[in-house]
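CHAIN AND CONFORMATION:

***
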Amino acid sequence: MSRHSLVAVTVVVPDYDEAIAWFTGVLGFQLTADEPRENGKRWVTVRPSGSACELLLARAANARQSAAVGGQTGGRVAFFLHTDDWARDHADWTAKGVRFVEGPRYEPYGTVGVFEDHWGNRWDLIQPA
Protein backbone atom coordinates (compact mmCIF):
# COMPACT_ATOMS: atom_id res chain seq x y z
CA MET A 1 0.00 0.00 0.00
CA SER A 2 1.25 3.48 -0.84
CA ARG A 3 1.82 6.07 1.82
CA HIS A 4 1.17 9.73 1.14
CA SER A 5 1.43 13.00 3.00
CA LEU A 6 0.13 16.42 2.11
CA VAL A 7 3.12 18.76 1.93
CA ALA A 8 1.72 22.01 0.51
CA VAL A 9 -1.50 23.84 -0.33
CA THR A 10 -1.65 26.77 -2.74
CA VAL A 11 -3.03 30.16 -1.74
CA VAL A 12 -3.43 32.60 -4.63
CA VAL A 13 -2.31 36.10 -3.61
CA PRO A 14 -1.94 39.38 -5.50
CA ASP A 15 1.67 40.02 -4.43
CA TYR A 16 4.44 37.81 -3.05
CA ASP A 17 6.02 40.32 -0.68
CA GLU A 18 2.70 41.48 0.75
CA ALA A 19 1.74 37.85 1.42
CA ILE A 20 5.10 37.03 3.01
CA ALA A 21 4.78 40.09 5.27
CA TRP A 22 1.27 39.17 6.33
CA PHE A 23 1.85 35.49 7.04
CA THR A 24 5.19 36.01 8.81
CA GLY A 25 4.52 39.36 10.49
CA VAL A 26 0.90 38.92 11.55
CA LEU A 27 0.44 35.17 12.02
CA GLY A 28 4.07 34.41 12.87
CA PHE A 29 4.55 31.76 10.18
CA GLN A 30 8.07 30.86 9.04
CA LEU A 31 9.25 31.69 5.53
CA THR A 32 10.56 28.34 4.26
CA ALA A 33 11.38 29.20 0.63
CA ASP A 34 11.61 32.22 -1.64
CA GLU A 35 13.27 31.19 -4.89
CA PRO A 36 13.09 32.92 -8.27
CA ARG A 37 11.53 31.07 -11.20
CA GLU A 38 10.97 31.89 -14.87
CA ASN A 39 8.85 34.86 -16.02
CA GLY A 40 9.07 36.72 -12.72
CA LYS A 41 7.47 33.91 -10.75
CA ARG A 42 8.80 32.82 -7.38
CA TRP A 43 8.51 29.64 -5.34
CA VAL A 44 7.39 31.04 -1.99
CA THR A 45 6.35 28.85 0.93
CA VAL A 46 5.45 29.59 4.54
CA ARG A 47 4.31 27.40 7.39
CA PRO A 48 3.32 27.60 11.03
CA SER A 49 6.09 26.50 13.39
CA GLY A 50 5.76 22.81 14.11
CA SER A 51 3.77 22.08 10.95
CA ALA A 52 4.91 19.80 8.15
CA CYS A 53 2.41 21.23 5.64
CA GLU A 54 3.31 24.48 3.92
CA LEU A 55 1.35 27.15 2.09
CA LEU A 56 2.59 27.86 -1.42
CA LEU A 57 1.99 31.55 -2.01
CA ALA A 58 1.21 31.82 -5.72
CA ARG A 59 0.92 35.27 -7.28
CA ALA A 60 -2.17 35.59 -9.47
CA ALA A 61 -1.00 35.54 -13.09
CA ASN A 62 -4.23 36.31 -14.98
CA ALA A 63 -7.75 37.65 -14.54
CA ARG A 64 -9.23 34.29 -13.54
CA GLN A 65 -6.63 33.78 -10.81
CA SER A 66 -7.02 37.38 -9.63
CA ALA A 67 -10.76 36.82 -9.29
CA ALA A 68 -10.07 33.82 -7.01
CA VAL A 69 -7.95 35.80 -4.52
CA GLY A 70 -9.71 35.74 -1.16
CA GLY A 71 -12.49 33.44 -2.28
CA GLN A 72 -10.85 30.20 -3.25
CA THR A 73 -13.50 28.13 -1.47
CA GLY A 74 -16.56 30.21 -2.23
CA GLY A 75 -16.78 31.73 1.25
CA ARG A 76 -16.35 28.49 3.19
CA VAL A 77 -13.56 27.95 5.69
CA ALA A 78 -10.51 27.01 3.65
CA PHE A 79 -7.86 26.33 6.27
CA PHE A 80 -7.80 24.80 9.75
CA LEU A 81 -5.05 25.95 12.10
CA HIS A 82 -4.44 24.38 15.50
CA THR A 83 -3.14 26.42 18.42
CA ASP A 84 -2.16 25.64 21.99
CA ASP A 85 -3.72 28.90 23.25
CA TRP A 86 -6.77 30.27 21.44
CA ALA A 87 -7.20 33.32 23.68
CA ARG A 88 -3.55 34.36 23.29
CA ASP A 89 -3.64 34.13 19.50
CA HIS A 90 -7.03 35.83 19.27
CA ALA A 91 -5.79 38.78 21.36
CA ASP A 92 -2.47 39.03 19.50
CA TRP A 93 -3.94 38.78 16.02
CA THR A 94 -6.88 41.06 16.75
CA ALA A 95 -4.39 43.70 17.92
CA LYS A 96 -2.60 43.25 14.57
CA GLY A 97 -5.82 43.84 12.63
CA VAL A 98 -7.00 40.29 11.99
CA ARG A 99 -10.78 40.17 11.68
CA PHE A 100 -12.51 37.35 13.52
CA VAL A 101 -15.96 36.72 12.06
CA GLU A 102 -17.02 34.02 14.54
CA GLY A 103 -16.15 32.77 17.96
CA PRO A 104 -15.02 31.74 20.23
CA ARG A 105 -17.38 28.84 20.39
CA TYR A 106 -16.88 25.73 22.42
CA GLU A 107 -17.30 22.43 20.64
CA PRO A 108 -16.60 18.88 21.83
CA TYR A 109 -13.39 18.94 19.76
CA GLY A 110 -12.18 22.27 21.21
CA THR A 111 -12.39 26.06 21.15
CA VAL A 112 -12.86 27.44 17.65
CA GLY A 113 -13.22 30.78 15.93
CA VAL A 114 -13.22 31.85 12.31
CA PHE A 115 -10.96 34.61 11.05
CA GLU A 116 -10.24 36.05 7.64
CA ASP A 117 -6.78 36.43 6.22
CA HIS A 118 -5.64 39.65 4.56
CA TRP A 119 -7.53 38.76 1.35
CA GLY A 120 -10.73 37.32 2.82
CA ASN A 121 -10.00 33.58 2.89
CA ARG A 122 -11.60 32.04 5.97
CA TRP A 123 -9.62 30.08 8.55
CA ASP A 124 -10.66 28.11 11.63
CA LEU A 125 -8.41 28.74 14.61
CA ILE A 126 -8.83 25.68 16.82
CA GLN A 127 -7.51 24.88 20.27
CA PRO A 128 -8.12 21.14 20.50
CA ALA A 129 -9.92 19.88 23.59
